[in-house]
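Work Package 3 (structural annotation) set out to generate three-dimensional models for the target panel prioritized at the project kickoff. During this period the team completed the workflow that converts sequence records into discrete structure tokens, so that structures can be stored uniformly alongside our sequence database. As a representative example, we reproduce one entry of 224 residues exactly as it appears in the project archive.
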Amino acid sequence: MKVRIAVFPGTNCDRDALYALKHNGIKNTDYIWYRKSDLTGVRLLILPGGFSFGDYLRTGAIAIHSELFRAIPAFIRNGGYVVGICNGFQMLTEAKLLPGFLLKNTSKKFISRMVTLRVENNETPFTSCFRKGDLVEMPIAHTTGNYTPLGETVGNNVVFRYCDKNGEVTVKSNPNGSFQNIAGIIDDTGHIMGLMPHFERVSDEFLGTGGIKVIRSIIKNILK
């Protein structure tokens, strides 16, 4: 089964994602240009990080009107899966494929550093190789990562939360002001996940292994 990684003008994490997936055994992986809409034979679509269309208007606001993005609802209805990482997460909320919004960090600054995450839900196709409560290290790199549900119910959809080294969810361990320290969520169908941390950047023995279980879960549940 094929995996495709979307490429928009301004995308800068597509190569990271390609390397991470291939390095961990997903060989049938390639890029797909944003002006393409044919997802025939594709099982998983990755929306990688970066600054699609320069983040003009709002993060993800232009990308969601592309040919590729307009094909996503039908792709999901036909059994496909989508992961949005950082800018990809912003796109998914902008398009209302995931609840809530990503707003500017409360610091109003770009943040690039490692964070600790607590796995809140391991009963998803993207996290089943974790145990609930596991702590993992992943990097973040964003200015607009403050997740805000704006009255929408997301309790059962939370997959990852920012926490401290002991697994405690605290104000100090929240890097961007996200509501209840939310770092990643999944939709009600279980087919769409968005997260701000870059699991693809910690998926080998040199840079870190915190993201490997995400990829193993994808292999086990989606590409089986």
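The first strand starts at residue 2 and ends at 7.
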